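Summary of Year 1 activities. Much of the first year was spent building the evaluation harness for sequence design. The harness presents a backbone, in tokenized form, and records the residue chosen at every position. We chose the following record to illustrate the format because it has been used consistently in internal testing since the harness was completed.
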């Protein structure tokens, strides 16, 4: 699809419904319904350069993030359409009550501004959700609630920083590195 061919109003509304249902079902943690929005589930997380591709990897992603943030929610800021995507700006919110990878729970709450591209193919199938966000914004908020004068909180902070640093050294998923420049000729 050309970057200048904006789909019909009915296609835009149908895409919008898929995306809004997807958001709603994520909050309800209705994973079968969320997965049904894709013919093949795929999440691309740009901040950590990670890809969750396929039913089981995506379910693992849901399990990890909802273990860490069982009350995770979204506040949609804006929704836009492009030739092949619905672009959603939103606040992601949650309380850190379980481990997030190697980062132990801090009890901190975050509210982080994000952008997600819900990319559709030429048959109007959702092929990926590509999410852009700043990991440091989340970590700063999670660590801010720890009382640096309390030995227990100081220990949690040390473990959390060590966990974050150990996760920071991961190699980027090569599928996110192999990009093709767009054809910008008119």
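For this record, the design step produced the sequence shown next.
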């Amino acid at each position: 699809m050309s970057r200048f061919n904006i789909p019909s109003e009915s296609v835009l509304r149908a895409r919008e419904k898929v995306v809004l249902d997807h958001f709603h079902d994520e909050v309800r943690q209705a994973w079968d319904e969320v997965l049904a929005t894709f013919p093949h589930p795929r999440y691309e997380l740009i901040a950590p350069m990670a890809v969750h591709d396929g039913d089981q990897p995506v379910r693992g992603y849901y399990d990890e993030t909802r273990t860490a943030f069982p009350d995770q929610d979204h506040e949609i800021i804006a929704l836009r359409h492009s030739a092949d995507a619905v672009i959603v700006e939103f606040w992601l919110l949650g309380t850190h009550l379980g481990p997030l990878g190697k980062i132990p729970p801090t009890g901190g709450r975050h509210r982080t501004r994000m952008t997600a591209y819900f990319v559709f193919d030429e048959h109007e199938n959702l092929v990926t959700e590509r999410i852009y966000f700043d990991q440091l914004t989340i970590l700063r908020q999670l660590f801010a609630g720890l009382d640096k004068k309390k030995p227990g909180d100081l220990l949690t902070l040390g473990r959390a920083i060590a966990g974050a640093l150990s996760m920071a050294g991961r190699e980027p998923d090569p599928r996110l590195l192999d990009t093709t420049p767009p054809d910008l000729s008119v």
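The mean pLDDT is 93. Quantitative recovery figures across the full test set are reported in Table 2.
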